[in-house]
Design goal:
- The protein is of the alpha+beta class.
- It contains two helices and four strands.
- Strands 2-3-1-4 form a four-stranded antiparallel β-sheet.
- It is globular, with a radius of gyration of 12 Å.
Length: about 80
């Protein structure tokens, strides 16, 4: 079974949650424009000063998405 990689964008500060939510909208717009279906995208509020937006991709596709979308970091999902 292919491993999944969670590509993550970190947002910090008082507006982190709203910024992460907005970034998730842009990620979904990109996927729709490129006609790409992924199993999971979203955003999470870590605490009042830190939130993330993310997409989950197959490990074999990670470098392509990384180079195009420039996430801050990634982790095994």
């Amino acid at each position: 079974m292919m491993r999944k990689i969670k590509l993550i964008w970190d947002f910090r500060g008082e507006a982190a949650a709203k910024t992460a939510e907005h970034h998730d909208i842009h990620l979904n717009e990109y996927l729709e424009k490129e006609n790409i279906t992924l199993e999971k995208t979203g955003f999470e509020i870590i605490n009042e000063m830190h939130a993330i937006a993310f997409i989950v991709v197959d490990e074999k596709d990670m470098i392509t998405f990384r180079d195009i979308l420039k996430p801050h970091r990634g982790e095994i999902f």
